[in-house]
From TrEMBL:
It comes from Actinomadura rudentiformis. InterPro entries: CoAse, Nudix_hydrolase, NUDIX_hydrolase-like_dom_sf, NUDIX_hydrolase_CS, NUDIX_hydrolase_dom. The keyword Hydrolase applies. This is CoA pyrophosphatase. Its cofactor is Mg(2+); Mn(2+).
Length: 208
C-alpha cells in the first residue's frame, strides 16, 4: 500500500475519503464577527508532500506571524472562494473547486474572526510568486513531520488548560489559530481521528 505521507496521489485519495466522512462545525454568525478562509495547501516537496505555511509581512494585521495562505471573505463569497482567491493573491497559485478535498472546523479566533480552513492539493502548483505586501517568507512542512509523535507540544497554563505548540522544525513553533488548524488536519486527515479545536488556548499576541 502506498504511503499517503510520502505519495501525493495516495494522500489525495485518503484526504478526500476522510474529509467526506467528517462533519465540520461552522461558527454561527454573531454581531461584530468577521469571517476568513485559509488554505491548507498540500504540494510536492523535497521531503515528500508538504503543507505551505507563510510568515506574514512585517506590516499591518498579524505582522510577522506564522499563518496559512488566506484572508477575509469579501461580500457574497463562500469560505472556499475566499481561500482560493487569497491563495492566488498571496502566493500566485491557482486552485479551482476540483482541487478542494474538504473542509475542517471553523476556528473562532480571539481577533474576532471565524476562520474556515479549506484543504487543497496541487500536484503541479507551478512557481510561487509571493506578494511582498503580504508575505515575508514561504515555508514547507512535510506531512511526515506533521504526523510525527513529537510535533505537538502541550504547555500548561497558569489559568488552567494547555496551550498547543506545533514544533515544525528547529526554533519553529506554531500556536493557535494556525497551530490548532494544522493539528486538526493532522489528527483528522493524516491519522484518522475525530477531534475538535474551538476551545484551544491562543497566545495574547494573536488577538492583535
Amino acid at each position: 500500500m502506498t504511503d499517503p505521507l510520502t505519495n501525493l496521489s495516495a494522500f489525495q485519495e485518503l484526504a478526500a475519503r476522510r474529509l467526506a466522512g467528517f462533519s465540520h462545525i461552522a461558527v454561527p454568525d454573531a454581531p461584530g464577527m468577521r469571517r476568513a478562509g485559509v488554505v491548507i495547501c498540500v504540494v510536492p516537496g523535497a521531503d515528500g508532500p508538504s503543507v505551505i505555511l507563510i510568515k506574514r509581512a512585517y506590516r499591518g494585521r498579524n505582522a510577522g506571524q506564522w499563518g496559512l495562505p488566506g484572508g477575509r471573505m469579501d461580500s457574497g463569497e463562500t469560505p472556499e472562494q475566499a481561500a482560493l482567491r487569497e491563495l492566488h493573491e498571496e502566493l500566485g497559485l491557482t486552485a479551482g473547486p476540483g482541487d478542494v478535498l474538504g473542509r475542517l472546523d471553523d476556528f473562532p479566533a480571539t481577533s474576532g474572526f471565524a476562520i474556515s480552513p479549506i484543504v487543497v492539493a496541487l500536484p503541479e502548483p507551478g512557481p510561487l510568486q509571493p506578494s511582498p505586501d503580504e508575505v515575508h517568507s514561504v515555508h514547507h512542512v512535510s506531512l511526515a513531520r506533521l504526523a510525527a509523535d513529537d510535533t505537538p507540544r502541550w504547555v500548561p497554563q497558569l489559568e488552567g488548560g494547555r496551550m498547543l505548540q506545533m514544533k515544525l522544525g528547529p526554533g519553529w513553533l506554531v500556536h493557535a489559530p494556525t497551530g490548532a488548524m494544522l493539528w486538526q488536519f493532522r489528527e483528522v486527515v493524516l491519522l484518522g481521528r475525530e477531534v475538535r479545536v474551538a476551545d484551544f488556548v491562543q497566545p495574547d499576541w494573536t488577538s492583535k
